[in-house]
């Protein structure tokens, strides 16, 4: 069992019968959805929403009931991965391109459990490029404004074309090297016209589960 799978299966233990569950996106969340699917097949009754079309498709394949947003109300728990997490439980997310939907779903969850392997546990954020979702209109102006915040910003490219989110927007990957003040940066980025949202998740995670190569699982609570 790989580290991501270990962390994911530990997180899924928190899901109880009757819960409303948010399903994250990415390579770690994949394992959580797989485990939830196993438990549903064994008789677990839940309702779920997904943070991306890919996660929704996987959930449906596994028999996890997907409920429309206007019918499910507030969620009990969301389980998702992260690209970086520090000791204060500040996250960098968006490597899978679903940061906006993740932020919407996770803001409407009573509890957010983040699952990572030890490579994502950092002292200072910023080694992983910070994803920023940008509307296509006048996007070059927005990209230049992002560069003015002190980063190297480039469009995410997939198959030779600009990557499109499920919302039809672009992702700019912003390399800061270090992010010393994520709270200040989040505000500055979201004030730029054309920016939809950014991959800094602050004061959102309630628990981070970190799987380590030595077999240990560390749990960091808010």
Automatic annotation (TrEMBL):
Matches recorded under InterPro entries: NagB/RpiA_transferase-like, Ribose-5P_isomerase, Ribose5P_isomerase_typA_subgr, Ribose5P_isomerase_type_A
Role description: Catalyzes the reversible conversion of ribose-5-phosphate to ribulose 5-phosphate.
Keyword Isomerase belongs to the record: yes
EC number, UniProt record: 5.3.1.6
Residues forming the catalytic site: 102
Organism of provenance: Paenibacillus brasilensis
Binding site for substrate: 25-28, 80-83, 93-96, 120
Keywords recorded for this protein, A-Z: Isomerase
A GO molecular function held by the record: ribose-5-phosphate isomerase activity
Protein's name according to its UniProt entry: Ribose-5-phosphate isomerase A
Pathways per UniProt: Carbohydrate degradation; pentose phosphate pathway; D-ribose 5-phosphate from D-ribulose 5-phosphate (non-oxidative stage): step 1/1
Reactions this protein catalyses: aldehydo-D-ribose 5-phosphate = D-ribulose 5-phosphate
UniProt similarity note: Belongs to the ribose 5-phosphate isomerase family.
Subunit structure: Homodimer.
PANTHER family to which the protein is assigned, alphabetical: RIBOSE-5-PHOSPHATE ISOMERASE 3, CHLOROPLASTIC-RELATED (PTHR43748:SF3)
Top-rank EC class of the record's enzyme: isomerase
Keyword Cell inner membrane applies: no
């Amino acid at each position: 069992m790989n580290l991501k799978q270990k962390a994911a299966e530990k997180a899924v233990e928190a899901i109880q019968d009757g819960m409303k569950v948010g399903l994250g996106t990415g390579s770690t969340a994949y394992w959580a959805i797989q485990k939830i699917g196993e438990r549903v097949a064994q008789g677990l009754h839940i309702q779920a929403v997904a943070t991306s079309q890919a996660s929704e498709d996987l959930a449906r394949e596994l028999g996890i009931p997907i409920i429309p947003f206007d019918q499910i109300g507030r969620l009990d728990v969301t389980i998702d991965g992260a690209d970086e997490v520090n000791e204060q439980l500040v996250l960098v997310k968006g490597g899978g391109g679903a940061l906006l939907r993740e932020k919407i779903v996770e803001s409407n969850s009573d509890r957010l459990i983040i699952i990572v392997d030890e490579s994502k546990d950092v002292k200072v954020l910023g080694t992983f490029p910070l994803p920023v979702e940008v509307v296509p209109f006048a996007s070059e102006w927005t990209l230049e404004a992002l560069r003015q915040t002190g980063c190297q910003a480039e469009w995410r490219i997939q198959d030779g074309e600009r990557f499109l989110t499920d919302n039809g927007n672009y992702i700019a990957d912003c390399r800061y090297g270090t992010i010393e003040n994520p709270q200040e940066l989040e505000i500055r980025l979201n004030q730029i016209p054309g920016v939809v949202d950014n991959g800094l998740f602050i004061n959102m995670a309630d628990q981070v589960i970190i799987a380590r190569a030595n077999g240990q699982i560390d749990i960091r609570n808010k």
